[in-house]
Amino acid sequence: MKENISITGDTTGVLNKMKNIGTVVFLFGLLMLVVAYMENVKFLRVTSFFTMLVGTFIATFDKRSFFGIRKLNGVQKTGMSVFTVGAVVFLFYWMGYPLGNNLLYLTILMVSMFAGTMLYTLGGYGNGAKGVKNNGVWHDSLSNRGIIAWFSAILLTLFYLQLYWFPKSINELIHLFDPLSLFLRRKPADNWFLYGTMYTFVIVILGIKFIIKYRYNKYQVYRTIVVVFSQLILAYFIPSILESMNEGIGYFSKDLKNIWPLNYSFVESWSLNNMVKPQKVGPSGFFFFVWGLFSFLIITPILTYYVGKRWYCSWVCGCGGLAETAGDSFRQLSDKSLKAWKIERWLIHGVMVFVLMMTIATLWPYFSGKEYVIGPLKINKIIYLLFLELLLLLSSLGMYFLFKKYKRKVFLVGISILIL
Fold it and tell me: What is the 3-state secondary structure (H, E, C) of the chain?
């Protein structure tokens, strides 16, 4: 006879009280964290972080499952333990407390996180019958918007804020990646190298996890291999090697698969200047400029016409790659309704029109009234206008072929707008 494990009566009341107390402690820790960064008090950062952790512990504690650990098998528990070693190293450097030899601790961080994730994955998906295992996703605090999910989301948001606007507050963490940056780029790490490395690392390890989980589905396996390859080679290794060929380089998107309009900053003046001035960038800058034009003028239209947008969003894009790997445990939370799909379609095309208008508006003052040298090319106001006219007419021609194929009147409206 199976044991009845439903929670009723006094047990429910105790758990609710613990959840409320834990939530209050968590919010107090969050307030302390804000003050810690406003006043730049390093010790208070650590205190506030552990206060949030204690709040999460109290709010989610259940002695029967002990955060779900008791439900795990031995391999999964070992994986969690190994992963925790790397997480602790990351946390110390993030909070501003370097541990010593950067090469040693960077190796410990990456090896332990990789090995821990693989062990946990093999323990969860390595055995059993064929099929996708998503057991318990609606009962897990992390994958069902529980306090652990909020705790993780706040920390991730904090990390992004520091990375983009306050990189000096994570100097120790940035310098932890100096050995890898010196090896690949021949210069110390900066906040963007840290970002790219962690982004790529997450896609690689969780991509392998995804492949193990969906190993009986060939489409998912092949697609994920391409996603991991695109991020690791096109977005990380090749750009780093090209960057190492230059003595000094200005900042611009060096991700070879970051194509306009996703890479909307491609046409901004500071980005163009950094790509096309040899004395500032070196030989690779002009390569990125030519590749950027070639990718969105030739590669993207042809592949999208014959395959659809999935070739990029699901197989190549870094954002899609992160969504398909790291986001796999959360896909049940997305809206699957027809209404949501219709809203998404309108938003996608609306954003596309807006980006096109902003691109023209951005380039116009850049090229108007002056002659500009880009490698072997000379562009002035007239050439820019003729080039723009040619692109719009080619776009209208492409839309005409779409009208002939799909017989939708909306394409005729688009053709009229483009010609005007």
Answer: CCCCCCCCCHHHHHHHHHHHHHHHHHHHHHHHHHHHHHHCCHHHHHHHHHHHHHHHHHHHCCCCCCCCHHHCCHHHHHHHHHHHHHHHHHHHHHCCCCCCCHHHHHHHHHHHHHHHHHHHHHHHHCCCCCCCCCCCCCCCCCCCCCHHHHHHHHHHHHHHHHHHHCHHHHHHHHHHCHHHHHHHHCCCCCHHHHHHHHHHHHHHHHHHHHHHHCCCCHHHHHHHHHHHHHHHHHHHHHHHHHHHCCCCCCCCCCCCCCCCCCCHHHHCHHHHHHHHCHHHHCHHHHHHHHHHHHHHHHHHHHHHHHHCCHHHHCCCCHHHHHHHHHHHHHHHHCCCCHHHHHHHHHHHHHHHHHHHHHHHHHHHHHHCCCCEEECCEEECHHHHHHHHHHHHHHHHHHHHHHHHHHCCCHHHHHHHHHHC
